[in-house]
Amino acid sequence: MASLQKIRNHGALLIAIVGLAMLAFILGDFLNSGSSFFNRSRENVGVIEGQKIHYTEYEAAKDQLTEVYKIETGRSDFDEDMNAQIRNQVWNMLMMDYTLRAQADKIGMDITKDELSELCIGENPHQIIRSRRVFMDENGQFNRNAVVNLLQTISQDSEDAEQNANLKQAKTYWLYWEKAVRISYMQEKYTALLQHLLKANSVDAEFAFNGRQHGVSAEYAMQPYFTVADSLVTVSESAVKKLYKQHKEQFKQTPNRAIKYIAFDIVPSEDDFKAAQELMEKLQEEFRTAEDVSVVVNTNSDIMYDGRDYSEQTVPAQFKEFAFAKGAKAGQCTEILFENNTYAMARIMQAGYSLPDSVELKAIAAEEGQEDQELGWFKADQLPKNIAEPAFNGKRGARFTVAQGMGEQTYEIMELGKPTPKVKLAILAREVTPSSKTYSALYNKAKQFIVDNNNAEALEVAAQEQGMAVIPQFNLTATTDKVGQLKASRPIVRWAFEAKEGAVSDVFECGQQFVIAALTEVNDGDYRPLEAVRAELTYEARNNAKAEYIIKQLKDAENLEATAKIMGQEVQAVERVSLADSRFGNAGMEPAVIGATIALGENALSEPIQGNAGVFVVKTGAANDLAEEFNADAEKAQLSSRYAYLPYQAMQLIEDNAKVEDNRANFQ
């Protein structure tokens, strides 16, 4: 009972303790689940007009476009530049899709399923579909049946794993272009709407006509700013700051970095050349005499022996004269040759025969109801060996079957090209590359350079003393794919956005170079800072000061001749000036001077006019009007043609002004 009473006495405290425990439990559970929420937000590659682009969507789009490029180019070994192009193209397509969709939703514009179907497989498909090579016949003309056949094919399933993979790739290919058609046509509809809205009216037509008709003759004197010595004027800091404020919107920027870098070329040492030469000398006798030369070559050479047939166009240039010499026969060998850092020698395996230079093939349908597919013309090196051999050794009209995956495919030789001389060569080649010892020595040299020069200023001074090029690179953004022409240099960009200004990087391996970078500028503001644009603003402020100086010198000039004398210039004439002009006589683009001249009227002398290139004083003569008849319709048509670019400029403005959060840098 006593214990029970103690509990009653401390009941309020116990309730508070239990409450806190429960709150801690609830908060802990929320934070744990919340971490998933925050992680999901960090998985967004970006946000476009309120639409979150999840990493999986971005990656799926990249994979899709990669498959499209594989089919379109026939390649799969994409380099760094191609992968960067794919990433940027995917992002640009997402930008266009989501920004355009946001605008279309506001006005209720859309593309129906029937519209999209007609655009893709109708009687007159969209140009995007018509321009695909896979849908063209042997004459390069669009073949609608090829589109229908593809759609029929990708709608099927197969028990064969490889065929299923091919079907999946074909479906991916089609869906990409279907989406591209939808986005492109949406843009076409939107720009067509804008073109319909942006047309000249009667007031525009009359104003433009009158501006062109009315003109005056004029004479002028102009003193260029460059004729006034800089020492005669003063440019104040307040004047520069005032211009910066006026022009600030022109200085908008994306956060960026500037670096300077030096590079150590990773090249072979003398010992590496010596080792390669000794290896070739050791192998040459075995290469000359081996019965199975493929073992020697494929074990030691950079060029594998696969029995390919070389023509005079495809044989390595250094062996052309040897391989196609009169009397060339099997067993003959060259000496060891050295070219382009490579030691090489060749042995003729077969000579004195001819094969077609190309072949036209047809793939025979495997099942009833399917159509044969004409594949076009191929060179030998464009086909797998198991297809090339029977194709180039067969006769016109012959068929052959080869294994493909778990199934088989039959081909027909439709036509053979002109027979050309061929030769089979075994080539033993060893390119001289840096050994691990050489690599380590160069790497250590670069590391020591950092130890000795651990700030941006010291790095530049030391590099110049050693005769090394110090290369600047400006305006690196968080999504920049590479630095200048440096290969695999994306890590340098990531480092630049993590380091502090003045820092020196570690050693980066960029292709065949070790690179050390120094961070020279960090620009994170929404606008370029005053110091970054000071030179151009100072130039403008100085010209403004020179204009004031020139105008002050002209205060007592009573006529144009006196003005020209003070200026030290000649009076020049302009036959006719009108509001339709873009240039003022020989003086170039001077809109302020043109406007002021027209405003003067006839036979009047202007006050000094501050122009782009200098200060002008203009004296107008008689009116010089045209006598054209006003044609409202023609005038409207001419003006409307000038507006034609505006809808496309509007599309760019829509993207420029879209609400975009770009986080791609976190995933590159």
Which regions have little confidence, pLDDT < 50, spanning 5+ residues?
1-27, 33-38
Average pLDDT, rounded to a whole number, is 88
The spatial strand order of the largest sheet comes to 15-3-17-16
Principal-axis shape: extended
Structural Rg: 37 Å
Please give a handful of descriptors for the protein shown.
single chain; 668 residues; 5 domains; four-stranded antiparallel sheet; extended
Explain this structure to me?
- The chain has 668 residues and is an alpha+beta fold.
- It has five domains: 2-42; 46-197; 215-253 and 531-623, Chitinase A, domain 3 (Roll), CATH 3.10.50; 259-267 and 436-523, Chitinase A, domain 3; 270-431, no CATH class.
- The protein has helices at residues 2-9, 11-42, 55-73, 80-107, 113-121, 127-130, 144-154, 161-197, 202-213, 237-247, 270-289, 293-300, 317-323, 385-393, 436-452, 456-465, 490-496, 530-553, 560-567, 591-600, 632-642, 646-656, and strands spanning 44-48, 51-54, 216-224, 256-265, 337-339, 342-356, 359-363, 373-378, 399-404, 407-416, 419-431, 471-477, 508-510, 513-523, 572-577, 609-610, 614-623, 660-662.
- The chain starts with a helix and ends in a 6-residue tail after the last strand.
Question: Quick recap of the structure?
Answer:
This protein has 22 helices and 18 strands. It is α+β, with helices and mostly antiparallel strands and 668 residues long.
Secondary structure elements and pairings:
Layout: H1 2-9, H2 11-42, E1 44-48, E2 51-54, H3 55-73, H4 80-107, H5 113-121, H6 127-130, H7 144-154, H8 161-197, H9 202-213, E3 216-224, H10 237-247, E4 256-265, H11 270-289, H12 293-300, H13 317-323, E5 337-339, E6 342-356, E7 359-363, E8 373-378, H14 385-393, E9 399-404, E10 407-416, E11 419-431, H15 436-452, H16 456-465, E12 471-477, H17 490-496, E13 508-510, E14 513-523, H18 530-553, H19 560-567, E15 572-577, H20 591-600, E16 609-610, E17 614-623, H21 632-642, H22 646-656, E18 660-662
Antiparallel strand pairs: 1-2, 1-18, 3-15, 3-17, 4-12, 4-14, 5-6, 6-11, 7-8, 7-10, 9-10, 13-14, 16-17
